[in-house]
Design goal:
Layout lengths: L2 H21 L4 H21 L1
Length: 49
């Protein structure tokens, strides 16, 4: 499929996944922010070596 189709598919399921995870008690925005922080920390550690 075209990238537009893929994006539509992703958007449709992303909403469902978000709903599922938030019901499970996950806050995706917070999780994603935490994940970015961890990645940045890891990159900093690599840079030090």
């Amino acid at each position: 499929g075209s990238s537009k189709e893929k994006h539509g598919w992703f958007g449709k399921y992303k909403g469902r996944i978000n709903n599922y995870l938030s019901k499970q008690g996950y806050d995706l925005n917070k999780e994603s922010a935490d994940w970015h922080k961890r990645v940045e920390e890891r990159e900093k550690e690599k840079a030090k070596k």
